Every structure is written in C-alpha cells, then in structure tokens.
Amino acid sequence: MLYVAIVFAAGFAFGTVPKLGETLATLCEAPFLLIVMVLAARWLPARLGVTPAIGPLAALGVGALVLQQLTDVALGSLLRGMTLGEQLAHLTTPAGAIYLALVVAFAAMPVLTNWRKLRRP
User: Could you tell me if residue 44 is inside a domain?
Assistant: First the structure.
C-alpha cells in the first residue's frame, strides 16, 4: 500500500540518527513522521478512491498498520538480527513507548485527517 510505503520510507530515512541515543533520536524523528502521516493520510484516500466513511478509512489505517508491522518485524529480523521477543521487549523502553504512540497515530490517521469529509449514515 502506498500509505505504508510513504510513511515507512520516511521512518527509515529519519531512523538513521543513532548518534543522539535511541530515545532522543526517536523523539527527534517523531514530529517529521507525524507530518508525513498527516499528509499521506489526507492525500491518499481520495487518490485511491477510498470512500470518505469511517469503515473504509479505518480499514485503510488498520490494513496499513498490519503491513507496516509485518515489514518492521521482518526487517528487524533480517537487518538487525532481532528475534520477535527482542522486538517486543524493545516496546517497554522509552523509545518503544514513543514508537507505540506513533503506530497508534499511524493506524488512526486516515480517519482523523479526513474527519470533516466523513459521510455519516
């Protein structure tokens, strides 16, 4: 999905600043990722012909989240040699908590950014 590709590419690009320390680097990249999420979530539903209703927009966000998480776990295993358990344990760190907040925002963003356009039954 294009939404996943855009946001994941931005995260990959911003995630290359490890010299700051993991938590500070995650905090520094978070605003940029949020901007990319908002822009992509505003632009893509209309571009892809997604009906501006809660169901289709939520499906877009959740579907994108599933694809993003599968990709993230695969890349964590392949590129960093992390097991699934190590990746889950990382979520208990401050950087992991920031990551979880961003993941929730990522899934919700198609609905949140298109709230005014929603067709209600």
Answer: no
